[in-house]
Structure formats: structure tokens, C-alpha cells
Amino acid sequence: MKAAFITETGPPENITYGDLPDPSPEGSKVVVTTGAVAVNPVDTYIRNGANYWELPLPFIVGSDVAGTVAAVGPDVTRFQVGDRVWGTNQGFMGRQGTFAEQSAIDECWLYPTPDDVSDEAAAACALVGVTAHLGLFRDAKLQPGESIFVHGGTGGVGSMVVQMAKAAGARVITTGGSDEKCARCLELGAEVAINYKTQDVGEVVKQFAPDGVNVVWETLREPDFETLVALLGERGRLVLMAGRDARPPFPVGPFYVKGCSLHGFVMFKATPDELRACSVDMNRWLSEGRLQPQIAMTLPLSETAAAHRLQEENTLGRAGTLAGKIVLKP
């Protein structure tokens, strides 16, 4: 089979698109014929060597996949040949990645794809969707009628947070870096979208929630806690999902006197049961049209190196040339 893989961590140029042996279904593993995969910033970090575990070599890059079951191992009970499935959390903790014509994946990391949802949509929503769901509902325990501020509502995770919070009955206020991005935030379900380049974010949030918001979701790698904590109301919850190397000052006093809580997490440490719970809501919302993938472009799988380069330019270099996910197809 064809696959995008590395034999040594490093820059995007280390990715080879070539032949690897076809995977075989062993134990509880399912062989999935790839329909679509999607690039995430974390994929580029792992390729570059920022991981806490030993990579299998050659290492197939990528964590998201959607496709069709081609074969099942003898211990598989949840799927059969011909089923459409999607999954994420591959390429982590020593597991092989997904950017290949086929992948052998343990059935505990796979979920049925609704008939009315495309492989491209399922792949584009996979990792970013479960990340948003875990932070909103497992950790922040967002409730209907509560308010949430999302820092960056058109990004991969941010757009999922906006849509899921809206679907759960919350009031959403978010930011965008242009009038066009703010308009998109409103289309996704935000009640208010702030152009952070031309408007005073703190003042607009105060008008939206005079006593502070219930939840703040931070997407930036270098959080400004002075600003974020000021946006929180009593018993507010602050969710962090990035910034492994960040060491910003923290306003302890204003934080604890309001009885606030801080939640940091990485989705790849979630259990199979926790991720399966995310998939149930995500599948329903995808079928209902309440969760829409944000796809910037679709490329052939052979262009994986170029896709990684473009993702890095926008994640690390803040080029601003990517508004949505990069989806690849064999």
C-alpha cells in the first residue's frame, strides 16, 4: 500500500510517500480502507519529534481517518466488513498513524459513520471534535443557558467549540481576526463575534455578560491569564488545550476569590469510553447539520509533506492563510 511516513523525526521534508506492507487484522484490530484523513497541528509536532513515547519506525503520520472496513480480526465484535467508520487518537502512545491507503486500528478507537455524513466531513471533525467535546462536557461541564467565551472561533478546535456549545444550548461569544472571520463565527452559532484587531474584547464581553462568563476556552499557545481570568464570572471554568512550553504569569488572587477552576487536557490521554461518548453526540450533530466541518482544502495523500508545511506556517508562523482543516484523500 501507499503511505506517508517518516524514518526519522524532523521537518516536513522527512516525510516519504511510498510503499509499505499492507496491514493485517489481528486480535481486535480492524483494517480500514481510507476514504479521507485530516491534518492536525499535533501531527506536525509529533513528526518533528515532540512526543513522549517511542515511535514505531517507519512511522505513518496522522491521527484522523474515515473510511470503510476491509477486514476484521478474530476478536472484533462491533464492526463487520463493509461498515463505514471514522476514528482518531492514532499515531499517539506508540500507535501507528493513519496517512495510508489502509490502517489497522483497534476497534475501541473506531465509531460508525452516519450514512448521510461523508468521509471528508467525519475526518475533518474527528480530533478537533473530540477535543472540543471533552473540554466542554467532561471537564467544564457546560450547561444549557450558560455563557462561554471562545478565543478564536474559526480555528480547527475553536469552530467545533462554538458549534457544540450552541448545540448544547449555551450562549456563545467569540473572536475572529477579520470581519469575514467574525461573520463566519456568527454563521456557526455565536451570538456575538468580536474582531479583536478593531474592538476592545474585554468591553464587548462585559456588555455580553456583565457578571462574567461561565466558561472561557483558550486556544492560543501563549495564554494571557490576566485578561482571561478577568472575563470569568463566579465559579467560572477556564479550559486550556495548548501551550506545552508556555510559562505565563498567573493572577492567583483574582482567580481564587471568584472560586474559578482551571482545566488543562490532551485528548490522546482520554479513555476509549470517553471518546466513544464524544462520538455519539458528534454523529448526531453531524447528521442534523448542527456540526459542520471546516475544510479549507482537499489534497491527494501524496501531498502530505506540503500539507504539513502549510499547517506549520499557520500554526507556528501564524501566516493566516489557512481557514479550516486540510483533508487528504488517497
How would you sum up this structure, described in words?
There is one protein chain. Strand 10 (171-176), helix 4 and strand 11 (192-195) form a beta-alpha-beta unit. The protein is 30% helix and 26% strand. The termini are close together. The protein contains nine helices and 16 strands. The strands form three sheets. Strands 3, 5, 6, 7, 8, 15 and 16 form a seven-stranded mixed beta sheet that branches. The protein has a six-stranded parallel beta sheet with strand order 11-10-9-12-13-14, with helices on both faces. The chain folds into two domains: 2-113 and 294-329, Medium-chain alcohol dehydrogenases, catalytic domain (Quinone Oxidoreductase, Chain A, domain 1, Alpha-Beta Complex), CATH 3.90.180.10; 129-267, Rossmann fold (3-Layer(aba) Sandwich), CATH 3.40.50. The chain has helices at 41-47, 119-139, 156-167, 179-188, 201-208, 225-231, 252-257, 272-288, 304-315, and strands at residues 2-6, 16-19, 29-38, 59-60, 65-72, 84-87, 102-106, 110-112, 147-151, 171-176, 192-195, 213-218, 232-240, 261-264, 295-300, 325-329. With 330 residues, the protein is of the alpha/beta class. Helix 2 packs across helix 3 and helix 2 packs across helix 8. The longest helix is centred in the middle third of the chain and has 21 residues, at 119-139.
Topology:
Elements: E1 2-6, E2 16-19, E3 29-38, H1 41-47, E4 59-60, E5 65-72, E6 84-87, E7 102-106, E8 110-112, H2 119-139, E9 147-151, H3 156-167, E10 171-176, H4 179-188, E11 192-195, H5 201-208, E12 213-218, H6 225-231, E13 232-240, H7 252-257, E14 261-264, H8 272-288, E15 295-300, H9 304-315, E16 325-329
Parallel strand pairs: 9-10, 9-12, 10-11, 12-13, 13-14, 15-16
Antiparallel strand pairs: 1-2, 1-4, 3-5, 3-7, 3-16, 5-6, 6-8
